[in-house]
Specification:
The protein is an all-alpha fold. It has one domain. The termini are far apart. About 60% of the residues lie in helices and about 0% in strands. The protein contains six helices and no strands.
């Protein structure tokens, strides 16, 4: 089980620096004085998809759980029809 937790952390937080964005914004030097900033890394859609395709079943289950939790957190919020209409129109350019 502990090994799976480590794998999940690596999967979600190990993109060569992307994981420390929030910490940096909250004052990384105070939180991790001995921590050296990671080298810049470009995260592509191919990287994300490859990580998802090579995930083990436990990682997939964890990811789906996170997405469901996000969805649940906004379940009772008012629906912003104008925003989502504009979002959909933006994606039409791919069609």
């Amino acid at each position: 089980m502990e090994e799976n937790k480590i794998k999940i952390f690596e999967m979600f937080a190990g993109f060569g620096g992307a994981s420390f964005t929030l910490t940096d914004a909250l004052d990384r030097d105070r939180a991790f004085p001995e921590f050296e900033a990671p080298t810049p890394y470009t995260l592509s859609m191919a990287d994300i998809l490859n990580t998802m395709l090579t995930a083990d079943p436990y990682q997939v289950e964890y990811f789906v759980g996170l997405m469901d939790a996000y969805r649940l957190s906004i379940w009772d919020k008012p629906f912003n029809q104008e925003f989502f209409n504009a979002l959909g129109e933006g994606f039409k350019q791919w069609g």
